[in-house]
Amino acid sequence: MSDEQDHKLEAKSDYVADASSVSSPDIDAVPAAELPDQELYHSHSWWTTYVFSQDAKYIGIQYALTAIGTGLLGLVLSWLMRIQLAFPGLGWLEPSSYYQFVTMHGMIMVVYLLTALFLGGFGNLLIPLMCGARDMAFPYVNMLSYWAFVVAVLVLLASFFVPGGPTGAGWTLYPPQAITAGTPGYNGGIILMLISLILFVAGFTMGGLNYIITVLQLRARGMTLMRMPLTIWGIFTATVLAMFAFPALLVGCLMMTLDSLLGTSFFMPAMVSLGEKLTHEGGSPILFQHLFWFFGHPEVYIVALPAFGIVSDLLSVHSRKTIFGYRMMVWAIVGIGALSFFVWAHHMYVSGMNPWFGFFFATTTLIIAVPTAIKVYNWILTLWRGNIQLSLPMLFSLGFIVTFLNGGLTGLFLGNVTVDVPLSDTYFVVAHFHMVMGIAPILVIFGAIYHWYPLITGRMMDETLGKIHFWITFLGSYAIYFPMHYQGFVGVPRRYFEIYDSPYIDTSTLLLNKFITIAVLIVGAAQLLFLYNLFASARLGKKSEKNPWKANSLEWQTPQMPPEHGNWGKELPKVYRWPYDFSVPGAKEDYIPQNQPPSEIIGAKVEKT
Amino acid sequence: MSKKKSIFQLLTEKPWETDQIEADNDHEGRTVNLTKQKLGLRTIMAASTVLFSLFIVAYSDRMLVSDWRNMPEPWLLWLNTGILIISSLVFHQTTKYAQKEIFDKTKNGLYFIGFLAYSFLIGQLIVWYQLMSTGYYATSNVANAFFYLFTTIHGLHIIGGIYFWGKTTSKFIKRSHKKEEINNLIDICAVYWHFLLVVWLVLFGLMLTS
């Protein structure tokens, strides 16, 4: 223990420090570090620096680029599907290709893009920087995690090139049809899909271990849990969810792999296929559905919680205002995380379950809407009388709030059994889940990329291109998904590969299908603008000053920007406050970074929230 | 870390209040007073527990279907269970020797544990061979399939344990790291060994009683 500890902070009012009673060095007193500094791995060659990197920042960028690359494939697949739906007469796609594209689009977007980008990408980039650590707890394991992800992606892509092509079972991969003749890719593609998922889970577990331990144990001095940025709370809680939810996917995948390869009967009932009795008997397909959705529903929040956290920080920084109800936001994140394990069967209302079972899950679904609504209110109250800067991150965050609210409201309809049963197999569901876990998180991702881009490259992304990108993406998404709600209401079924003029289908929906497809093509093409902006700005972008958004959180307070290996130079940062001290009365600047000592901001009066 | 706080106490802190600011400025940065390896192991054990619990749920659900035929438990499984119990006991003793810095006994203990772990795996393979030669294939009944699945997943966990046992033992023998670090690693391996014993007892008990 050092002598410094004897000097106690003497500020006893709402003032962070009372200038009259203490001399300035004393109020900065923090006991000397009791924990030894982290040992760092230093790379020796080009390979270990850029390819097999153990630096979390590089791994984060690697994760993000791999995920975005895979996501682009998912985007192209959606174009192909939409062209087929709008012009059924063209014979553009075979039925089997359509189902294969639906399946791959779904799985790629949910798992290989969103999960990998939020947790692997932003998690790796932001956790050590925002917590004030030099790197992740286990850098080597972190590197293995990324390469397991790469192999998982390669195995997934390989399924396009096996005989029979990728699986066309839908992203839920329900047995028995997923591994029975008649479904595209029933004997080759599905196996590669399952193996790829198993690899993904293995890789993610290694990464998740790092995120959890780093957040819990490697924070800077003074960084209590309740001083962490909400981004970290979101990513941390999502990681905990993933550690509990992914085993369910793993169990389902392993048992289905055995059913398919060895001919066991975990999920496969006795059935007759193509006139022949199969050797399976007694298996329970509904068991797979339970396992899948016990993973699948938390998965929604694995994607949503980091988005919630990031958007809270973006809104606070870009409206120069303290986040409204910080503690309530943290509780909502933790509460949603816990509740998310009790709602899974609302995806299975039409599977023939006991009505009381459905009633239970309808109730829990309504309950989980409460903390979610609290978050939406708090975001709006954060904006209330804020000094709102309509920068790109702010635009995307505002877009997120509206879109998430929209998708959340339709979720309330679908959460009720009686409303869900007629709507379940229509485009209403497609519109709902794309709004709530497609567009909403993607908008946050764009906002986050525009926000943290200077931290990675030291340059700003182009504002004009960004605004064009925002408006096309935002308005375009509504042009795509609003008509789908209507199509759902008039009963257009999803999963059909072509929809002709027929007595059962309203003619207006055929025109709408063409309209939606044109919107899809435009929105998709607008992403090329974003990609151009992303890569060109790294060379041509305006040089960014240090801390360009005047943010408080630690990632902007590194000695160099972009931060170099080890992040913090010689000495780790010390944290004196939470990251939301914006527009503090009496302070010289309208922001007080987390690591600014009290002696430098004497007279600033911090408000409660 | 001055005093232990419950998760509820942590979540109800008011970081803007003056008293809290003082206390928070002294915070050393760690949430719990454990090494990162120890906490990491606990995280992995939690995820593993979920994995095995879900297998057990699937087993219990599938058991109710009428095509379920119980599988005999070869006597060798009891022997393997015994090996696992002994290796756990030996590991417990070895951690004590390591604490007291008795080099030879610790070294012999570690070697013996490795020997027992390999014997367990070989024993399990012999059980597989016996069962298959008497016609209990994974495809003939789902109860058999569950048995093969459980033993495989548990065996893979053991193999993971052997990998870290190997690393720890070589560090111990080379004396390449500080004493506390190596003792920490030995402790962690021991906890993992006990964990896998408990998992096996639960799985074995489940298969015996059904």
Summarize the structure.
The complex is a heterodimer of chains A (609) and B (210). Chain A has 609 residues and is an all-alpha fold.
Structure description:
The complex is a heterodimer of chains A (609) and B (210). Chain A is 59% helix and 1% strand. The relative contact order of chain A is 0.10. Chain A has a domain at 553-609. Chain A starts with 23 loop residues before the first helix and ends in a 69-residue tail after the last helix. With 609 residues, chain A is mostly helical. By secondary structure, chain B is mainly α. Chains A and B meet through helix 6, helix 7, helix 8 and helix 9 of A and helix 2, helix 3 and helix 6 of B.
Features:
heterodimer; A: 609 residues; mainly alpha; two-stranded antiparallel sheet; 15 helices; 2 strands; globular; B: 210 residues; Four Helix Bundle (Hemerythrin (Met), subunit A); 7 helices
What is the topological layout?
The complex is a heterodimer of chains A (609) and B (210).
Chain A: H1 24-27, H2 46-51, H3 56-86, H4 95-131, H5 139-158, H6 189-217, H7 230-261, E1 272-273, E2 276-277, H8 285-318, H9 326-339, H10 355-383, H11 392-414, H12 417-423, H13 427-457, H14 463-489, H15 507-540
Antiparallel strand pairs in A: 1-2
Chain B: H1 7-11, H2 18-25, H3 36-63, H4 75-99, H5 103-133, H6 142-174, H7 179-208
Helix pairs in contact in B: 3-6, 3-7, 4-5, 4-7, 5-6, 6-7
Read across the widest sheet of chain A, the strand sequence of neighbours is: 1-2
Structurally, how many domains make up the residues of chain B? 2
What is the approximate shape of chain A? globular
The computed structural class of chain A is: mainly alpha
**End-to-end distance of chain A:** 35 Å
Shape by Cα distribution of chain B: flat
Strand % of chain A is: under 5%
Number of strands of chain B: 0
CATH class of the largest domain in chain B reads Mainly Alpha
For this structure, what is the CATH homologous superfamily of the largest domain in chain B?
Cytochrome c oxidase, subunit III, four-helix bundle
Note the total helix count of chain A.
15
Task: State the helicity of chain B in percent bands.
Answer: over 70%
Our estimate of the beta-strand percent of chain B is under 5%
Quaternary organisation: heterodimer
Average residue-wise pLDDT of chain B:
91
The CATH architecture category of the largest domain in chain B equals Up-down Bundle
String of helices and strands of chain A = HHHHHHHEEHHHHHHHH
What pair of chains forms the biggest interface?
A-B, 70 and 45 residues
Give the low-pLDDT segments of chain B: none
